[in-house]
Amino acid sequence: MSERTEPLLHLALRVEQDIFLVRQRGREVAAAVGLEHQDQVRIATALSEVARELLRGVDGADVTFAVDRDATSGRTRLHVDLSPVRPLPGGRYEPQSGAVARLVDSLQVITVEGDTVVRMSRRVPDHAEELTPERAGKLRDELAERAPGSALDELAAQNAQLIAALDEVRSQRDELAVLNSELAETNRGVMALYNQLTEELEETNRGVVALYAELDEKSAQLRAASESKSRFLANVSHELRAPVTAIIGLGRLLADSASDPLTGEQARQVGLIRSSAGDLLALVNELLDLAKAESGRIEPDWSEVDLRAVFGQLRGTLRALATRPEVELVVEEPPAPATVRSDEVLLAQVLRNLLHNGLKFTERGEVRLRAERRDEAWLLSVTDTGVGIPPELHERIFEEFYQVPGTTRVGGTGLGLPYARRLVTLLGGTLELTSEPGRGSTFTVILPVGGV
């Protein structure tokens, strides 16, 4: 059930000039109620496409902008109703471009007070300012007083939006190129696939509607590419490991005291070779672990796990990593009875990953591991006093190869957190993040006591 407010704005669509006006005012209303910039462009573009088709097909429509709030979910939506001046053929409306419907949350033909209406809607973000009756009245007055721009102004605005969208695509293309460069030595097949996707991106963008539709399609292709990458890495694991392992072995052999003595410079270069090969092997192992998790090849070995034993092992093995005197590693003793049905190896791997991550990004203070029993679940949390993570990046850090930018950024692949979340999901739990800049971060693994 929805709570409908008084409409914010009414417009008449009768001539071609009105299409520009409808698009302009649509973007203004979307901005006024709190939609983000990208969604403002999406709904304005969809509105102009539908308006053009209704003008050509049924001589125009009356356009109404309104906001309603779902009383059950508490979500607010912006609705745009287009009431045709003549009946729709067959009482139905099918947009000529299938991409239009993907620009909004819903696009449908409904009946409102006996009239047939084409309605499109877009959800207002939860963080937007609440649209109280007083604020709605103020916005209604501001929109009524605001003078519409000319068609030339609107075309200029559309061009600016298209340029911004092209810049975004170009930026994404550049990021993909960097990723392909990093994987060149270990995964030429994946690099070629991403290059192909980059070339395909350059051939899209034939207008605002086509641009955003193509971006949606590329997201699906990237997911398919990720699956192909996982299958590829899983099938060639021996081929990837063997040359790196050989380099490490040969480096160890050269540095062995039983071999011919090396000069100081030679010893330094051999050390660099061994260090680089070790980093490369760690990258290969992380890629292979992630590929196995994505392909479903990891099967948990379920048993009753004693959290005290797991915490004790982590306390001993990770203490050596806390090399900064300003950072203290604290592993609290879990409250008894400290047992959970899980896979001990996979669970320890998840916690080790989170602790290692905390130690890397904490310059002073502490990294603390603690366990709490709550109802029928265990909450295993890793808290650090590092730089923290902005709210808008809380989901991005779980994307493959993504790392939070900043002055404290350290080496890594950006695969640890995505792999940890997949393992937690495999164990029947969830991995949650609480963090804000300057106040550190807390990663919490929530596991059912009895397992899956």
Automatic annotation (TrEMBL):
InterPro entries (alphabetical): HATPase_C_sf, HATPase_dom, His_kinase_dom, HisK_dim/P_dom, HisK_dim/P_sf, Sensor_HK_Regulatory, Sig_transdc_His_kin-like_C
Residue ranges of every copy of the Histidine kinase domain listed in the record: 235-451
UniProt KW keywords: Coiled coil, Kinase, Phosphoprotein, Transferase, Two-component regulatory system
Cell compartment(s), UniProt: Cell membrane
Enzyme Commission code: 2.7.13.3
Catalysed reactions, as listed in the record: ATP + protein L-histidine = ADP + protein N-phospho-L-histidine
GO MF, one annotated term: phosphorelay sensor kinase activity
Coiled coil: 152-214
Cellular component terms per the entry's GO annotation: plasma membrane
Superkingdom of the source species: Bacteria
Protein name per Swiss-Prot or TrEMBL: histidine kinase
Species per Swiss-Prot/TrEMBL record: Micromonospora humi
